[in-house]
Amino acid sequence: MDEKSEKRPLSVIVQILVCLMGMASWIDINGLWVQLPLMVNYLPEGWNLPSYLVIIIQVANVGPLLFTITSRFTDRRIEIPTNYVIILVGCVSCILLAFYWDVTSYFGDEEHSTVLLCLSFCLALVDCTSSVSFLAFMSLFPLGYMTAYFIGEGLSGLIPSIIALIQGVGGNAECRNSTFLNETSNTTYHQMTYYYPPARFSLEVFFFILFAMLFCSFVSFGMLNHLPLAKREQVKSKKYEKEGDGTAAYGAVGDGSSETDSWELEKNKSLKSSEAQFSGESEDEASETRSSSSTKPVLPKNVEVDVMMKQSEKYMSGWDWVFLMSIQAWVNGLSNGVLPSVQSYSALPYGNVAYHLAVTLGQIANPAACLIVYFLPTRNIAVIGAFAFLGTGMASYIMWLALESPTPFLCGSVWGEVLVVAAWILMAGLFTYTKVMIGTICRDHGRKALIWCGAVMQAGSLIGSIIIFPLVNNLHLFTSNDPCGDTCWDYRT
User: Fold this and answer.
1) What are the b/e assignments for 144-164, b being 16+ CB within 10 Å?
2) Same domain (yes/no): 263, 136
């Protein structure tokens, strides 16, 4: 790009479109998750339903793996058609869920929510893939637009949670004495049945709302590709230039032609220069280095300071890395694998309202923690370890409650509800802060550190979900309650 285009301010319209596109990243899975307080009452999996969804989401990580392998062996920008496909699949899946979420079938002697589980895999597959394909597409635009993208990604969890809070769950389950007619003998009989008070609006309406938001993302992505205003904002790249027609595709990561890449090149040169000074490079060598880069643009002073800060933070011992990666695997295993699988057992004994608040407010805690990271970051390893320790304390309390189901601590007391909801909010916030700060440290140390960080996060999540699934569904270590028997909310005074 020329000098004028580099200085041009970011387009507000393009930022809005990027934000709406980023909203599609995880909005459908997050939306599905906040509907669990309503679904577990009607589907055959019951309180075990979250554990099924957790393992499905982890298996769906095959999507980004296939995308990465395919990208490695092709010179074409596959992220653009991929993004069209995954957003469209999300739209279609939400429409199908609105009509068929409660359809079940039998496998052997067990009844399962086959349509919901299959469509959940489709949603998880496209959401996991979006984590890499959306970022690959964002390399088309200057670095400044990444802020709008991450805002949209944060909204993908915040908006469904707010809508679910408005929706509510109607209240706790009731046991009613219902009258039935036996048509064969023409006699009536009485039977105790469960009654679940309805929410303000149904699951069908919620899925239609998700479809509408995904459709907005689909339209926004199309406009980012075809709107002249958006195309003018894109960064040209010779790597994907079409031969013969004189037109060019845009920006490729690492091709050295975009303003971002040239900026990073200059930053790396400055970093190498500072490394030479720390390593005792001779004055002649340093002078040669300066003369070779004298014709290049000079970095602003704030960037030079940032480079020097990163240089001072660069050196960490092997044990520091082992410690950080162990924490990353641990917190991801708990927050993405183990705890979501037992969320129903920890909160539902206190009633549908407590479970509903634990799910929705726990989701809101994630973007809130990211906002705290923005204003109060830390790279102190001891502080990060302390946050992980506090989060583990909350996780231990949650697991204890789940094991004590259906009569956990403070059963029948409003304080029991307050504590379980607070534990879920604090756990989500503390673990999110820990994960983001470890990722920030890895970002300071380059691409290889980020790759290891991502691999450790996925490995921890996968191991956690694999460990907890048989404990919930095969060994039956956790027990659900009976609305027609003893429940916590029956004891409330």
Assistant:
1) ebbebbbbbbbbbbbbbbebb
2) no
Same domain for 390 and 412?
A: yes
Residue 335, classed as helix, strand or coil, is: helix
Specify burial of residue 165 (Cβ count, 10 A radius: 0-12, 13-18, 19+).
middle
Eight-state DSSP code of residue 314: -
Check residue 174 and give its pLDDT: 77
Question: What average pLDDT does range 108-131 have in this prediction?
Answer: 92
What is the per-residue pLDDT for 359? Answer: 95
246: left (phi over 0), alpha (psi -120 to 50) or beta: left
> Dihedrals φ, ψ of 194, to 5°?
-85, 140
Cα–Cα dist 17/152, whole Å? 9
Residues 338 and 293 in one domain: no
Q: Are 2 and 142 in the same domain?
A: yes
Q: 3-state DSSP call for residue 139?
A: coil
* Spatial separation of the C-alpha atoms in residues 155 and 417, rounded to whole Å: 27
Percent of the chain residues topping a pLDDT of 70: 78
Residue 222, Cβ density class (10 Å: 0-12 exposed, 13-18 middle, ≥19 buried): middle
Confirm whether 192 is domain-assigned. Answer: no
Chain segment 259-274, per-residue pLDDT in tens: 334 334 444 444 344 3
Rg of the Cα atoms in the chain:
26
Question: Which range, of 178-187, 224-233, 470-479, averages the lowest pLDDT?
Answer: 178-187
